[in-house]
Amino acid sequence: MKHCLLRNDMEQQKNNLKIVADKKNARMILPNMLTLIGVCIGLTSIRFALSGEFHLAIIAIIFAALIDGLDGRIARLIKGTSRVGKELDSLTDMISFGVAPAFIMYFWKLNTFGRFGWLLCLIYVICVALRLARFNINSDQEPSWRDNFFQGVPSPAGGILVLTPLIISLSGFDYIELNYNVLVPLFFIGTSLLLISKFPTYSFKKIVIPRKATIFLLFGIVLFFGLLLIYTFNVIAISSLIYLSLIPISFFHYQKLKKIHENDRIQDDDDLEDVL
């Protein structure tokens, strides 16, 4: 009798473990599906560029960037994070923000540069790969105030930055005559250096919004997406330029916070010595 009861208890525990495992696997499906959709969109942007539909290629990259910003947050929200999802996300970033922007810009302008244009594409893609490899290593570190900053420009931002000359040309900004033969290589070289640098840039991961400001935040989001639907490329171009202007601001902000935390650590060490 006791043997039968023990056997039933063991079977019940196995069933419970199976149910828990099934629930966890189910939670992992949604964020991983979003990531795979991002891969498809990134590859589709290359197809649009091959057809000369560069406006659709840019829109596809923007959608891929939005999905990239959502899949990780959704995974953490529903507790569906996994090692597979992390590696899959890096692979998606490599395709959508490394390979795809390089091909788009090559088909648009860099093919007129001959071998030098292809070299710029190779350098950029390699820098994206190095950036993602470093991010995967650093993501396992303990949380700290440095989590408010990235080391270098993240790959989604890098992908949009190298596309900025094309975005400006599509936006219809004719107020200033731009030499794209100079601008495109400058953006490629500059973005490549920012990707592999340790220059601190805002991560926007831990922004705390006061409850009183929530209504203004919602209004701002609605206004932004409304303008994005009406003046798509103008808004994207301005957003890229604003992000570029934030890079030096983030550097000085990082240095200020670093000095404050170093002073606090020295003060704590002095207090500890006094106690001893």
In terms of topology, how is this protein built?
Layout: H1 2-50, H2 54-77, H3 83-108, H4 115-138, E1 149-151, H5 155-162, H6 164-171, H7 180-196, E2 200-202, H8 214-230, H9 232-275
Antiparallel strand pairs: 1-2
Helix pairs in contact: 1-2, 1-3, 2-3, 2-5, 3-4, 3-5, 4-7, 5-7, 6-9, 8-9
Tell me what the structure shows.
This protein is mainly α and 276 residues long. It has one domain. It contains nine helices and two strands; from the N terminus they run ααααβαααβαα. A two-stranded antiparallel sheet has the order 1-2. Helix 5 packs antiparallel against helix 7, helix 6 runs antiparallel to helix 9 and helix 8 packs antiparallel against helix 9. About 2% of the residues have low confidence.
Q: What is the N-to-C succession of helices and strands? A: HHHHEHHHEHH
**Mean pLDDT level:** 82
Q: What Rg, in angstroms, do the CA atoms define? A: 23 Å
Distance between the termini: 64 Å
The largest sheet, given as strand count, sense and whether it forms a barrel, is:
2 strands, antiparallel
Please bin the fraction of helical residues.
Answer: over 70%
Stretches with pLDDT under 50, minimum 5 residues: 16-21
The largest sheet has its strands arranged as 1-2
Could you say which structural class the secondary elements and strand pairing correspond to?
mainly alpha
**Assembly type of the shown chains?**
single chain
- Molecular shape: globular
What count of structural domains? Answer: 1
Fraction of residues in β-strands: under 5%
Number of strands: 2
Q: How many helical stretches?
A: 9
